[in-house]
Write a structure and sequence with these properties.
Blueprint lengths: L3 E5 L6 E9 L14 E5 L2 E13 L7 E4 L3 E14 L2 E8 L9 E14 L5 E7 L2 E14 L3 E6 L3 E14 L4 E5 L13 E12 L7 H11 L5 E5 L4 E14 L1 E4 L5 E5 L2 E7 L4 E3 L7 E5 L2 E7 L5 E3 L9 E5 L2 E3 L2 E5 L3 E3 L4 H4 E4 L2 E3 L2 E4 L3 E3 L6
Parallel strand pairs: 1-3, 2-4, 3-5, 4-6, 5-7, 6-8, 7-9, 8-10, 9-11, 10-12, 11-13, 12-14, 13-15, 14-16, 15-17, 16-18, 16-19, 18-21, 19-22, 20-23, 21-24, 22-25, 22-26, 23-27, 24-28, 25-29, 26-30, 27-31
Protein name: Right handed beta helix domain-containing protein
Organism: Piromyces finnis
């Protein structure tokens, strides 16, 4: 911790830092080591509030906030900018092997992090949680340029709760997953094991070229064909719930890759101004989400070669899976070739997809402005 290092055995001893301006000298004074701002070990307990800071240029194992063991960190009214890192948790890194009552914890409110860089080819994420708790309300992560990074990476029974949290202007040079979850992971919110709950999340300018440079557009095209360029990747069994998601201006291979035992619920959300290489929802032998419910939501100004909303590849049999669109608006969704809303090669299309009280406004395609099915048994 270049600013604060805590190693305390007594969790009841709370340190408080208030009203601080802390300026680092960027490349002129690089930081080496773990926790480029704050590092807490054992049972340390710190509250830091009303802070402005900038210039964290770290070149080795560089989470900004590192909380380990059973330590607690609370951050309030934080504004930090110009942050350089390479791997693991770029802003937040939690590493805990303790029980739920004593797990490492970061809680934050009204926190802003801007102008963030990541340059390693190793795995990293803005928020990396192994076995701990991350609880953020009204947080902003803005202008994030990475070589290889996720937004969230949680495992070892970690918990994450995000509310009114914005991720804006995110660009990866290599493959990325927006949210990556491995076995024994769930995100806190519904108080039910193996549930993921995110509420009031804004994601804008995700994998897009703001300056439209030739080099950037070339990389973006490669990402569009990379199956790892996905918003949510779910392994094992989860109920994934997104309420009031606003996702605008993006380029992705697809929106979801999930296990056949998983279910996904999208409620009161807007997905707009984006590109999906194989559709926001895609069914194939290697990707069969059990259940997807999209309710009171909108898909607007989306495009792809075939349908940008849902594509169903050939399936060898009828799986126990279903996608329901209820009270959903499809507006200006455009397929260059086939199926403005649905493109399918499967005979099971009518058993997989259900529309209930949906609205279609100016959907477009060369063949089938709403629907294109190449298997005659699917009608």
């Amino acid at each position: 911790g270049s600013f604060y290092y805590g190693r305390n055995d007594d969790i009841k001893k709370i340190s408080i830092i208030n009203n601080v301006e802390y300026i680092n000298l960027w490349k002129d004074f690089p930081i080496y080591g773990y926790g480029s701002a704050i590092n807490l070990d054992l049972n340390s307990n710190l509250i830091i509030k009303n802070v402005y800071s900038e210039g964290f240029y770290c070149i080795s194992s560089c989470p900004l906030f590192a909380v380990n063991d059973s330590s607690k960190l609370e951050i309030l009214n934080i504004n930090m900018k110009n942050i350089h890192s390479n791997e693991l948790g770029i802003i937040i890194h939690v590493d805990s092997n303790s029980s739920n009552n004593n797990q490492a914890t970061i809680k934050g409110s009204n926190c802003t992090f801007t102008n963030i860089e990541q340059e390693s080819s190793r795995d990293s994420a803005l928020i990396w949680n192994s076995g701990g708790l991350v609880d953020l309300i009204e947080a902003i992560f803005e202008n994030f340029k990475a070589n290889h990074s996720s937004i969230l990476y949680v495992y070892n029974s970690g918990y994450i709760y995000l509310q009114k949290t914005n991720f804006c202007n995110i660009y990866n040079k290599q493959t990325c997953n927006g949210i990556l979850m491995e076995s024994n992971v769930f995100i806190r919110g519904l108080n039910k094991e193996n549930n993921v709950y995110l509420r009031k999340i804004n994601i804008e300018n995700y994998n897009v070229c703001i300056n439209k440079s030739t080099e950037c557009l070339k990389v973006q095209k490669e990402l569009n064909n990379d199956k790892n360029t996905v918003f949510v990747w779910i392994n094992e069994i989860y109920d994934f719930n997104l309420e009031t998601l606003y996702m605008n201006n993006f380029n992705l291979y697809t929106m979801f890759i999930s296990d056949i035992k998983s279910s996904i619920n999208i409620i009161s959300s807007v997905i707009s101004n984006g590109y999906f290489q194989i559709g926001a929802i895609n069914y194939s032998e290697s990707n069969i989400p059990r259940k997807i419910n999209i309710i009171n939501s909108s898909f607007k100004y989306l495009y792809s070669y075939n349908s940008p909303v849902i594509q169903i590849n050939y399936l060898s049999k009828l799986y126990n899976c279903n996608t329901l669109f209820k009270n959903v608006i499809f507006e200006e969704v455009v397929a260059q070739d086939r199926g403005g809303v649905i493109f399918s090669d499967s005979e099971y299309t009518n058993k997989i997809v259900t529309f209930d009280q949906c609205t279609f406004i100016n959907t477009k395609a060369k063949y089938g402005k709403t629907l294109a099915i190449r298997n005659k048994y699917s009608i």
